[in-house]
């Protein structure tokens, strides 16, 4: 008999029954009796991969793109500090960790495409919930104009430089709405990268699995790129779409250069809500198993790690009830090959998430670029390189038809090359440019690490307002106020500052341009020309690093019993977050803060953000963390090679059809 028909599928029990394992329920693409012929064109691995990739893209747009780029705007709009917005960011991983084991365990025997329809529902709902605070918090009141020049006692404007405890705003209550939205997004993301990936492996021949998974993972990386571009463009739109006209002369109309400006962060979340919910339709029409799955499973040969125990017998009926959960978990935790690969991948994830979070900051400080340009450069390096690495490795594993041990050896080579390329931080680093009050004094007056000097002592400047300018003396100043500038003009739409008491004479005597202004907004142009070299080496380092992602997933799927593949991915997801994606940004953030030379300290003596870093120290610290993690990865991958023992050839023979699902392993 061939694949199961409709009659056999109907005869199969809906839940656990007397049969030890029902055969794969292959059927048409549709909804019950409604199965249009046009839908059958998608009833194959390629059609499923397209739907999977779209859902992964939108998940990346919302979780890793829009939320990251909107966090600073949300901080200002709802008066939240960075620790609270950090809790918002971590809520996704918290939900993922809590649910990952249970979803992957119970979903293994379930209808995986319908689990992904549930995933799309929760991702869309989470996106909608995340945007709700905008609609219930009222119009944005942007307040009076902030002066950035030196305000002496004779001027009418006066800063409130006293330490007053600010009244608690009611806007902080929206923190819980954002956390709820992130938790729902975490619930939606859990089935996608556990059950969704395992379904791909179920439906394609073994030698093609790595290619399909690599394509799916690569497509998921497009999401953050699209999210950053889309979110960045929408932040140029005023938060309430139309800028209100104010009658009070002190409330001047804001523009994008005004510190009071807030962009329309919420629009993309609403758009993604509708787009993601549309994906419920294709996932709900896929059958339990794609046509041809039974034949593909029959041709696969077990590569499960042979530890000498009766693992196959133990896992034969696992998953029937919740009481099997501890046994199933212990079987995986005692698999030394699986745990070695999981710890290795977690170490790589720590580095990847750390650089994904702080690469723009590194470029901005090392090479003197603007935050927006640094973020763009970081995205142009990380996203294409990561996608390219995953596709290349998927193709190599597929074309070379590597077995499980061959894949693990391939991981050793990629990690070793990535470790060598990591040395780019040693020679592609830059020193700090002259900074008044930090790296040098104000023309011989004042002291180092003190922004206040005799030339600006009467200006009542705020250290909490960082607005760097470059003087004609090629020295950077913390703000126009600390440079002693009392006036500004717009020349050809460019703001220039004059009457700056702290700015020295121009260093280039022969250039008449130096006398047209005393200072201009922005950091001074860096004399370091190593940015192209750094980006080139770092691009290839990211490519080689992400060449390990797809092979690691394939090796994990092959070294565990067939009925535990989804569960193994769930276990990996938990460790990946607990040891990688959650501590990664924290560890990188601590290292970067450790290289700080000038902190924001307000009138209440509260330490805030860091304004200036020691570039060389930052480069060495980041290289040290990255190199240490690479060494840990290599050690555990080598351990996986040593631990792995393929099953005896006699156990890899094709089983009887009635035992197909329980014995055959990927």
What do these coordinates show?
- With 666 residues, this protein is mainly alpha-helical.
- It has 3 domains: 39-140 and 172-242 and 258-300, Up-down Bundle (Growth Hormone, Chain: A), CATH 1.20.1250; 301-429 and 529-665, Growth Hormone, Chain: A; 434-508 and 515-525, no CATH class.
- It has 23 helices and 7 strands.
- The strands form 3 sheets. A 3-stranded antiparallel beta sheet has the order 2-1-5, with no helix packed on it. The protein has a two-stranded antiparallel ribbon with strand order 3-4. A two-stranded antiparallel sheet has the order 6-7.
- A hairpin with a 5-residue loop joins strand 6 and strand 7.
- Helix 14 (336-367) packs antiparallel against helix 15 (371-399) and helix 21 packs antiparallel against helix 22 (615-643).
- Residues 1-24, 154-161, 247-252 and 650-666 have low confidence and may be disordered.
CATH H-level name of the largest domain... which superfamily? MFS general substrate transporter like domains
Shape: globular
> Could you say which structural class the secondary elements and strand pairing correspond to?
mainly alpha
The CATH architecture of the largest domain comes to: Up-down Bundle
Alpha carbon gap, first and last residue: 23 Å
What order do the strands of the largest sheet run in, or round the barrel if closed? 2-1-5
| Cα gyration radius (Å) | 29 Å
**Topology order in helix (H) and strand (E) letters:** HHHHHHHHHHHHHHHHHEEEEEHHHHEEHH
List unreliable stretches of 5+ residues: 1-24, 154-161, 247-252, 650-666
Number of helices: 23
What percent of the residues sit in helical stretches (DSSP H or I)? 40-55%
Number of domains: 3
| Name of the CATH class of the largest domain | Mainly Alpha
Could you give a short account of the major beta sheet?
A: 3 strands, antiparallel
The count of β-strands is 7
Mean pLDDT: 77
Report the CATH topology name of the largest domain. Answer: Growth Hormone, Chain: A
Q: What proportion strand?
A: 5-15%
Keywords: Cell membrane, Disulfide bond, Ion transport, Membrane, Transmembrane, Transmembrane helix, Transport
Region (Disordered): 1-29
GO biological process, one term: monoatomic ion transport
Domain Major facilitator superfamily (MFS) profile: 49-642
